[in-house]
Design goal:
- There is one protein chain.
- The chain is about 5% helix and about 35% strand.
Length: about 400
């Protein structure tokens, strides 16, 4: 039956009518007699006035399909609605009104109102934390910053302006007791050293080792200083992403993915030269053996001009170097005369004899110091050679290496 449901009453008339808002006479006036175990056809409005669980629906209400409606239409006939509210809608018109689950952009999200007793919600951001403040006239004791920096690792503090004042950075873990912290000047390569206070404009680095940071003026005379503080999050510490650890690599294979090399560089040709302070890999031959040059760095090795002696005068063999000492690594002596002679070597003019060599007539002595060197005692001194007797011709050459 269109518009009505067939129901089966489960209780007595008293049970059914107990607590309903419509009197039994109203049902009786409509010709409805509520008998236990009987079946009836009732409209939805009549069903709504019966107590819960007092009936069982045997046949649901058949929805009408007249008036141009389509299957699935929902019609509100007699419910009390707010002023201006629509009484009819379709399921298709409700489609896509509720956003899909999952994170999306702001315009496609439903606003959320937090509970009044909601505990603090941590919000993560990749942007640096920036605060600006100024110190003006009569600002002795002024606090530029008093910040909670527990989520930050590094702080950059820039002081701008012309002033006569002392600025001190302090740290604390309880927010009450403050300890003076050193700052590192970043104004030039040579000035990146720790300082107890700031007295000039510039850029300063603060290494965060506490929960709170405070920047105060501990002495003020004149002028104005502007301070800009930038705190960088833990996750924002720069990392050179061009170098990655990729695990082991087999022998005699090309490197890939710009790895951090922990082995030497295999070479079968000469490598280009480098300079002081620049990175230089150690060199391996094609079998993986370390290539080692016997002796010192080539640019710090010297070979003396050949010294020719025929008298007993003490003569300079290797000249002095003001900032370095010269350790002898090799000596060659040739005696072209017909007389045996002794040659004495000193590491400074008139000093103690460090080495004596007897050279026979028409003979040559080669003295390589393969496991050690003939050490010089002090910088800015010369090596000398002296014959024990006058002879026709003795020629001496020495190789040395600069140290220091």
């Amino acid at each position: 039956m269109t518009g009505k449901a067939k129901i089966l009453f489960k209780g007595t008339i008293d049970d059914i009518l107990d607590g309903i808002v419509i009197r039994s006479s109203q049902f009786q006036n409509q010709g409805i007699s509520l008998d236990e175990g009987s079946t009836y056809y009732l409209t939805q409005i009549e069903l709504d006035q019966l107590p819960e669980n007092s009936y069982e629906i045997l046949e649901p209400i058949e929805q009408p399909n007249s008036g141009g409606g389509t299957s699935g239409d929902v019609t509100v006939v007699s419910s009390v609605l707010p002023t201006g509210a629509a009484k009819e809608t379709t399921l298709s018109s409700m489609n896509n009104k509720i956003p899909s689950l999952g994170q999306t952009i702001k315009s496609s999200s439903i606003p959320v109102t937090l509970a009044s007793d909601q505990s603090a919600v941590q919000i993560k951001t990749n942007a640096p934390y920036i605060v600006t403040n100024s110190v003006g006239v009569n600002a002795n004791g002024a606090v530029l910053f008093n910040e909670d920096v527990r989520n930050y690792k590094n702080i950059s503090l820039q002081i701008i302006g012309t002033f006569t004042a002392t600025i001190t950075v302090q740290g604390s873990n309880d927010g009450n007791t403050w300890i003076n912290l050193p700052v590192s000047s970043q104004n030039s390569v040579s000035s990146s050293s720790l300082a107890a206070t700031i007295t000039t404009s510039g850029l300063y680095q603060i290494n965060v080792q506490c929960l709170y940071i405070k920047v105060i003026v501990t002495a003020y005379t004149s002028g104005t200083a502007t301070a800009v503080l930038v705190a960088t999050e833990f996750s924002s510490v720069p990392f050179n992403s061009t170098n990655t650890v990729i695990g082991t690599r087999a022998h005699s294979t090309l490197p890939a993915d710009n790895p951090i090399l922990v082995a030497g560089e295999g070479r079968v040709t000469q490598r280009t030269t480098t300079g002081d302070g620049l990175i230089s890999r150690f060199v391996l031959d094609k079998y993986g053996r370390i290539v080692v040059k016997n002796g010192h760095i080539r640019e710090l090795q010297d070979t003396s001009t050949m010294l020719i002696l025929s008298t007993t005068n003490e003569t300079t063999l290797i000249p002095a170097i003001a900032t370095a000492i010269n350790d002898i690594t090799n000596i060659v002596i040739t005696n072209t005369s017909a007389t045996d002679v002794r040659v004495d070597f000193r590491d400074t003019t008139g000093g103690t004899v460090k080495l004596s060599v007897m050279v026979r007539a028409s003979d040559t002595k080669m003295l390589p110091f393969s496991n050690s060197v003939l050490k010089q005692t002090a910088v800015n001194t010369n090596w000398t050679a002296q014959l024990s007797a006058a002879v026709t011709d003795v020629r001496i050459t020495a190789t040395s290496e600069r140290v220091g």
